[in-house]
Specification:
With 233 residues, this protein is of the alpha+beta class. Helix content is 49%, strand content 21%. The strands form three sheets. It has a four-stranded antiparallel beta sheet with strand order 1-8-3-6. Strand 4 and strand 5 form a beta hairpin. Helix 7 crosses helix 8, helix 7 packs across helix 10 and helix 8 packs across helix 9.
């Protein structure tokens, strides 16, 4: 019921640009073809080389997009938060998925067949512009990420990742503790470094009184210093 009310609120209040682009009859078509899927922590939502069939909307939880590279080393490419859409790029490109997506924590997704989405796009220019905007924005973000991951030093990369988590998921009630609890391995995969380097760098941030770390809980106590490290690499 909670999830259903979330969808109803998205529709009735036009909480995303996608829903704003839809006409009333088009919203009815989407809701008639909309289904819910529950995913466990670390469960795959889709895998590299699978055929794209659905548009996914994250309703509750947190999700990561990742890809295995040389020597099966994993790189986290993107993080999703409610209410964001994903899974459509490969369909538009007429190719299989080139990356995988999994839940970081127990998550609930809304799923819409891409064939339905394509039909709506062909008759709604505003909806087409929504996807053009999203694809363009993601491409720009990917370009920036490539530069940061290849040119910044380890401290700068980890600082940037921690700020990304803060910007994406926010803080707990104390306004300092990140509202996401990632493993050291995931932090490393997000920052393009080994797990041991991520652990050492976190420890150095703690020693510099920039962070407090308690297990997977990370509290940012000197955000200006962290932003300075991120900026200058």
């Amino acid at each position: 019921m909670i999830i259903k009310s979330t969808l109803e609120r998205i529709i009735s209040e036009d909480l995303t640009d996608l829903w704003k682009a839809l006409k009333p009859e088009e919203k009815r078509i989407v809701t008639d073809n909309f289904k819910y899927e529950n995913y466990r922590k670390n469960q795959l939502i889709y895998a590299e080389n699978e055929s794209p069939e659905n548009l996914f909307c994250l309703l509750e939880g947190k999700v990561k997009m990742f890809k295995s590279g040389v020597g099966d080393r994993v790189q986290i490419l993107r993080l999703y938060r409610p209410v964001q859409y994903f899974g459509y790029r490969a369909y538009f490109a007429n190719e299989h998925y080139v990356s995988s997506v999994a839940a970081i924590e127990p998550s609930v997704l809304g799923v819409i067949p891409m064939k339905i989405v394509e039909q709506l796009i062909r008759q709604n220019n505003d909806l087409a512009m929504f996807f053009i905007h999203e694809l363009s924005r993601n491409l720009g973000g990917a370009d920036t990420k490539i530069i940061n991951l290849t040119q910044k030093h380890i401290r700068g990369r980890l600082a940037e990742s921690l700020l990304l988590l803060a910007d994406n998921y926010g803080y707990e009630d104390d306004d300092m503790t990140l509202k996401i609890y990632m493993s050291r391995e995931d932090l490393a995969n997000l920052s393009n470094m080994t797990t041991s380097n991520a652990i050492r760098t976190l420890t150095s941030f703690v020693n510099d009184k920039i962070l407090l770390v308690d297990g997977r809980k990370i509290k940012i106590i000197d955000e200006p210093a962290l932003r300075k490290i991120s900026k200058f690499g």
